Amino acid sequence: MAKRSRPTEAPVEAGTPPADGDKAHKRLKRLERELAELGATEAKRLAQLNEVRARATAVRTRLTTLRTTVAGAHGEAGSDVPPAGPIGYCMRERRPVEISDPEPVTLSNGRTAIAGTCSTCGARVVALSARASPTDRADA
Ligand SMILES: [Zn+2]
């Protein structure tokens, strides 16, 4: 093997300025074409990426909606079970609310109650205990 055969036609080897310039020109053209192809590929990939992102967003939205629906269904199913905190009557909102930070207290009349703060507006809420304590009966 005396010479490596190159795919690009180069009649004159090294040393001749015009041929060298021609080679450089061809390389430039080839790189420009390559760049254009890469640009097209990039645009295509970006479009695909955007499409995938849009689909992911759509799926995420559906998932959130489904989770809300499932949570709502569970809430309805377990509506007979009281929520985490005890329920008291909020004087500020004039409606039954969940009591935050509940603590047992004894009222001036000797009855036990649950005192805490309204979970929605923060007002002080006192709820009488459902069952009368045995001492209450003994006292009366
Ligand atoms: Zn309240």
Any overview of this molecule?
- The chain has 140 residues and is an alpha+beta fold.
- The protein has 2 domains: 20-82; 87-132, no CATH class.
- Helix content is 48%, strand content 20%.
- It has a 4-stranded antiparallel β-sheet with strand order 1-2-3-4, with no helix packed on it.
- Strand 1 and strand 2 form a beta hairpin.
- It is rod-shaped, with a radius of gyration of 40 Å.
- The N and C termini lie far apart (120 Å).
- The model has no long low-confidence stretch (mean pLDDT 79).
- The structure holds zinc ion.
- Residues 90, 92-93, 97, 118, 120-121, 123 line the site of zinc ion.
**Number of folding domains?**
2
Look at the helices and sheets and give the structural class: alpha+beta
Instruction: Tell me the fraction of residues in β-strands, as a range.
Output: 15-25%
Determine the mean pLDDT: 79
Distance between the termini: 120 Å
Main beta sheet:
4 strands, antiparallel
Instruction: Identify the bound ligands.
Output: zinc ion
Concise description?
The chain is an alpha+beta fold and 140 residues long. It is 48% helix and 20% strand.
Comma- or semicolon-separated keywords:
alpha+beta, binds zinc ion, 2 domains, 2 helices
Architecture blueprint of SSEs:
Elements: H1 17-77, E1 87-90, E2 95-106, E3 112-118, E4 124-128, H2 134-139
The structure holds zinc ion.
